[in-house]
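tokens incoming
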């Protein structure tokens, strides 16, 4: 069981997914428990040319939205990012706990640790052309430490 999980994480950590001009790294979804109906997905997104993340969907969730967390007085609040998330050319935008995140709501079933969740991202480039990217995200309890490339021992056998 442990070995299988490690292999999955290593594959995703070493693999990089490209749409035309967008790179996604270190993507993961937070595991949920029974009765929990929402969770967050996190990743690093780098667009080669100016673009915008305008939507997302997943078969495991009724609604998937890009959210941001903001302090309002003493209260941490989150809301959908109006018009989508700006991806300035060459700049890595990080979706992480406490900041921007992909909110997955109306979950149809609990997301078990070490499973994988399909996620489709929809981007719009500066010319208004939309493109889709299909991802498969590992489900974890917290940001997998192995996703830090620099601290990860290199295991050639585990590479795709
Ligand atoms: Cu949210």
């Amino acid at each position: 069981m442990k070995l299988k999980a490690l292999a999955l994480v290593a594959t995703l950590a070493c693999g990089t997914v490209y749409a035309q001009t967008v790179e996604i790294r270190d993507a993961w979804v937070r595991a949920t428990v029974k009765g929990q109906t929402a969770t967050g997905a996190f990743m690093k997104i780098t667009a080669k040319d100016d673009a915008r993340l305008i939507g997302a969907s997943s078969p495991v969730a009724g609604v998937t939205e890009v959210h941001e967390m903001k302090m309002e007085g003493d209260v941490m609040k989150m809301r959908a990012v109006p018009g989508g998330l700006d991806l300035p050319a060459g700049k890595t935008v990080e979706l992480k706990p406490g900041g921007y995140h992909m909110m997955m709501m109306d979950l149809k079933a609990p997301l078990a640790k070490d499973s994988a969740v399909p996620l489709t991202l929809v981007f719009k480039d500066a010319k208004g052309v939309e493109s889709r990217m299909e991802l498969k995200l590992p489900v974890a309890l917290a940001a997998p430490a192995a996703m830090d490339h620099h601290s990860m021992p290199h295991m050639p056998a585990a590479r795709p």
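note: Residues 2-14 form the longest helix (13 residues).
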